[in-house]
C-alpha cells in the first residue's frame, strides 16, 4: 500500500456556496490532489483548486486540518492500494464562474452548504465536512 499526501480546498463564494468537483461518473468531492515534490500544502491546494474548478483568485481564510482515507473508487468505495493524508484549507473567492481544466475532473458545481454532505461521495469526506462546517459558517459572517 502506498502512503501519499494530498491537499485541497473548501472554497466558499460570495453567495455562501461551496465548490464541489466530479472525479468520476458519480464521485463528488472537494477539489484536491497530490502534493508535488517541492510544494507545500498551500501551494498544492491552490494548484488543485485552479485545475479542478478554474478558480485562480482565491483567498486563504484558514487551515482546516487533515484527515486520512483510502483513495476513492468511481463507485464511492475504497481503493486500498493508496492511503492518503489530506490537508484541507478554507478559501473564499469573489469569482462565480467554474471552468475546470483537469480532464480527470470534468465538472464543478456551486452547492449550498445544506446540500454538501449529501452530495459528497466518500464517507470520510462527509465526516470531515461535518467537523469543518462550524469554521465555514463562521467565515461566512
Brief digest:
Helix content is about 25%, strand content about 40%. With about 140 residues, it is an alpha+beta fold. The strands form two sheets. Strands 4-1-6-5 form a four-stranded mixed sheet. Strands 3-2-7 form a three-stranded antiparallel sheet.
CATH topology: Nucleoside Triphosphate Pyrophosphohydrolase
**Overall tally of domains:** 1
Please report the total strand number as a whole number: 7
Structural class: alpha+beta
What form results from the Cα inertia axes?
globular
CATH level-four homologous superfamily name:
Nucleoside Triphosphate Pyrophosphohydrolase
Overall CATH architecture: Alpha-Beta Complex
**What's the CATH class, please?**
Alpha Beta
Family: Belongs to the Nudix hydrolase family.
Keywords: Hydrolase
Pfam family, one: NUDIX
Protein name: Nudix hydrolase domain-containing protein
Describe the structure in your own words.
- This protein has 141 residues and is α+β, with helices and mostly antiparallel strands.
- It has one domain: Nucleoside Triphosphate Pyrophosphohydrolase (Alpha-Beta Complex), CATH 3.90.79.
- Helix content is 27%, strand content 41%.
- The strands form two sheets. The chain has a four-stranded mixed β-sheet. Strands 3-2-7 form a three-stranded antiparallel β-sheet.
- A hairpin with a 5-residue loop joins strand 5 (59-72) and strand 6.
- Helix 2 (113-119) runs antiparallel to helix 3.
- The model has no long low-confidence stretch (mean pLDDT 92).
